[in-house]
């Protein structure tokens, strides 16, 4: 599988645009797939520089209902009128971030997207075909990130902590038996998501790609070091069909937290920036 990082908070050179958000292009045997779209149309600029034909993308998966992962979806749908876009059924509900002054900032998606005929809403598990599966319904709360505490959802006129029922993840199955897990922000916790993956697939993934949400969104500071170290130890314990699980992280993991993970995990983990490409 080929992976191209279309947008991320950092870039691997001056040629590549960056913004707070995530967008990945995945090319499998059967699909040309977009996983998240960043917060704007900026991912399209990097796609053009990579000579990607946006009209050839057949599948879009939006990981959850936050602007920095699905804000660019309207721009994509204007350029591509045939791809199927998969959102969790709760992704267009209102989501907010509590600011330092107590104000509530809307961080959700454009709810008019529900009128677009290209969008298909997903409940808990959807098998697109033998190669791709989307799943949500992660309920474990081990190593639940403190960085989630300012992220809220609205229930009537009241605000409450987000349960992240709108977050979904992608499984890609390769012909050689390799299984790849792709996440957006891992608000439900990367360990809990992997454990849910194991429940579904019977083994750990061979590769994990995505953000781990170990950075406080307002300050940019990492969650406590002891939590990061404990997560690193657990990630090191996983093995897939082809050997020890490898990790490619980015975005909301934060560069400080990544460096802490790297100290523990060594070559098992790497960081993805705008413009980077992988051939798995």
Helix percent band: 10-25%
Principal-axes geometry comes out as globular
> Uncertain runs with pLDDT below 50, 5 residues or more?
none
The helix-and-strand class reads alpha/beta
Q: Biggest β-sheet, characterized?
A: 7 strands, mixed
**Beta-strand percent range:** 25-35%
Count every beta strand, where a strand is a DSSP E run of 2 or more residues: 20
**H/E element order:** EEEHEHHEEEEEEEEEEHEHEEEHEE
Rg, Å, rounded: 17 Å
**Strand arrangement in the largest pleated sheet:** 8-5-4-3-2-1-20
Average of per-residue pLDDT values: 96
Instruction: Compute the separation of the termini in Å.
Output: 5 Å
The tally of helices reads 6
Task: Provide an overview of this structure.
- The protein is of the alpha/beta class and 280 residues long.
- 20% of the residues lie in helices and 28% in strands.
- The chain is built from six helices and 20 strands.
- The protein has helices spanning 42-49, 67-70, 73-79, 190-201, 225-237, 255-265; strands at 2-7, 23-27, 32-35, 59-61, 84-88, 95-98, 104-106, 119-122, 125-127, 132-135, 151-155, 158-161, 169-173, 179-182, 207-211, 239-240, 243-244, 246-250, 269-271, 277-279.
- The strands form four sheets. The chain has a seven-stranded mixed sheet with strand order 8-5-4-3-2-1-20. Strands 9-10-13-14-15-18-19 form a seven-stranded mixed sheet, covered by helices on one side. Strands 7-6-11-12 form a four-stranded antiparallel sheet, with no helix packed on it.
- Helix 5 (225-237) packs across helix 6.
- The longest helix has 13 residues, at 225-237.
- The radius of gyration is 17 Å and the shape is globular.
- It starts with a strand and ends with a strand.
- The mean pLDDT is 96.
């Amino acid at each position: 599988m080929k992976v191209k990082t279309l947008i991320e908070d950092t870039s691997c050179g001056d040629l590549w645009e960056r913004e707070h958000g995530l967008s990945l292009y995945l090319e499998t045997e059967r699909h040309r797939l977009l996983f998240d779209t960043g917060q704007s149309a900026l991912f399209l600029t990097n796609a053009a520089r990579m000579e990607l034909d946006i009209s050839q993308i057949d599948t879009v998966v939006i990981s959850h209902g936050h602007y920095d992962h699905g804000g660019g979806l309207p721009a994509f749908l204007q350029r591509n009128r045939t791809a199927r876009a998969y959102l969790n059924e709760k992704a267009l509900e209102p989501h907010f971030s509590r600011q330092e002054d107590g104000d509530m900032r809307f961080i959700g998606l454009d709810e008019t997207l529900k009128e677009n005929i290209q969008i298909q809403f997903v409940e808990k598990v959807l098998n697109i075909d033998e190669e791709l599966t989307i799943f949500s319904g992660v309920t474990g709360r081990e190593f639940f990130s403190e960085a989630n505490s300012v992220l809220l959802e609205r229930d009537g006129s009241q605000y409450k902590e987000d349960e992240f029922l709108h977050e979904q993840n992608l499984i890609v199955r390769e012909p050689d038996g390799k299984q790849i897990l792709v996440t957006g922000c891992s608000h439900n916790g990367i360990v809990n998501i992997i454990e849910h993956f194991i429940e579904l697939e019977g083994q750990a993934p061979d590769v994990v790609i995505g953000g781990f949400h170990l950075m406080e969104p307002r300050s940019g500071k990492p969650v406590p070091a002891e939590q990061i170290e404990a997560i690193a130890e657990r990630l090191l314990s996983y093995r897939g069909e082809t050997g020890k699980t490898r990790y490619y992280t980015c975005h909301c993991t934060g560069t400080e937290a990544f460096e802490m993970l790297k100290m523990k995990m060594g070559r098992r983990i790497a960081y993805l920036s705008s413009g980077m490409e992988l051939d798995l």
